[in-house]
Structure formats: C-alpha cells, structure tokens
Amino acid sequence: MSKSVALRVIEPISAKRSRAKERKRLPVGINTQQRLLDAAELLFADYGYEGTSLRTIAEAADEHVGLTTYYFRTKDRLFDSVIQRRAVEMHRQRLAGLKEIGFDARTPLELIRAIIWAYAGPMINARSGASLQWQAHVRIMAGLINQKRWVPLIRKHYDPCAAVFLEHYRRALPDANFDSLLNAFSFVSSIMLYVCSFTDRFGQWKEDQSQTELQRLQIAIDDFMDFACAGFITLAQKKVSGSARKIKVIV
Predict the structure, then answer these.
(1) Are 26 and 38 in contact (CB under 8 A)?
(2) Across the chain, what does the average pLDDT equal?
C-alpha cells in the first residue's frame, strides 16, 4: 500500500462566489502594478482570457484604465506577466523539492515517487492553500493545458523547470525510452492539473457517499501518485531510445 501524500488541509474557496465581493478593495500599500496583476489574475481565472478586458481589470484594481497600457501595453503582455510571476516561484519551490531527494539507497519506485511529488506537490498545495491569488493561478493553468494557443507561453515560463525534472527522471530510469519518458512527463503534468481542478465528476458513482469533498480530493491525489508512478516504472521495461538526447537545462 502506498504512503499517502501530505496535503495542506484547507477547505478551498468556492469558485461560485464572486471574487469582487471577496476582495472588495485590494489592500492599501500595494503598488499599482501589483494591484493590476492581482486583479487580472483573479479575473482571468474566473472569466478566461477572452472574457476579461483591460477596463474590467482596471476597475477591479481601482485604477485608471490607462495605467494598464502604461505598465503592460497590451492584454497579451499583461497575461504573460500574470503567468510569469507565479512560474518563477513555482520553479523555486520545485527545485527546492528536488534538492531534498537523495539518489543513494533508493529504489527506482521511491525515486520516481519523490520526483513526481517534488513537481506536482507545490501546484497541488497551491490549489488548496489559503491564497486566493495562488488558487487563481492554478485555475488559469488548468484552463490553458488543452489550448494550443498558449503552448508557447507555457513553454516560455515552465519548460526550463520541466527540463531539470526530465533529467532527473532519466537519471532515475536510465534505460527508459526517451520519447516515452517525455510522454509520461506530459501525461503526469496534465493529470496533475486535472486533479488541481478537481470536479468530482464521477462522485455520484462512488461507493462511499459519506466522504467530504476534501476527503475525495485527498484520495484523488493519492491515486494520482500511484497511477503516475506505475506509468513511469513501466517505461523502465522498454528499450532505450536509439540515440541519446540531452535537454538544455536553464536554471
């Protein structure tokens, strides 16, 4: 039986509640650029890129609409900045998790599980954390994962970190097929965001109807980890790729 992953048990804020009512006004003392980024993040999470205007963002931040173009010029650049500031911190947390992993005296399964959690843990914890801003970022990323339009943006801000993790996966499973390893990493990243946007779609079919939403989320996280680890370990049984490849790592 696998060991349950630690999750910060904080009841998530319902997405149905109005972010404007929750926030009312952003705290005094936050600079204008920060206020605009915070407001944009919440609105993009609730209404998507297309459903959010610069004027709406300015109004939510209690700032003049002209300041959005002064600081960010276009909505595209503002959206880019919204993604970038969380990606930088996510990168830091994930690399910190990697540094805690010791490769000696560990089985491949233990290594893979540790690496997967170092990558997925910070995002999952952000989803259930106390920060509305971080919750918003997770919801934005979950919404972007299947949109080809935003692949360059995700590559720009998240691939440097992904490259570091891919090298660790290769170190843990040196005989794994490289292309299959890439696919596995992609699958795990996608499923991680699905877990973060947990909707309990099949909840009506669960045998135990007494579980709370938070309990079902915890079970989903544990099952995700078991599922992801099994997939990576299966790759170790495949033949190594025909040609060795190296990923350019940018830390």
Answers:
(1) yes
(2) 85
Do 140 and 44 meet the contact criterion of CB atoms below 8 Å apart?
Answer: yes
**Closest listed residue to residue 35, CA positions, set 23, 18, 46, 45:** 23
- Could you give the CA distance from residue 223 to residue 218 in angstroms, rounded to a whole number? 9
Domains of the chain: 14-73 (1.10.10.60), 83-251 (1.10.357.10)
For the stretch 169-214, pLDDT in tens is 999 998 888 899 999 999 999 999 999 988 888 888 989 999 988 8
The better pLDDT of the pair 36, 174 is held by 36
Whether pLDDT at 251 is above 60:
no
- Binned at pLDDT 50, 70 and 90, residue 8 comes out as very low
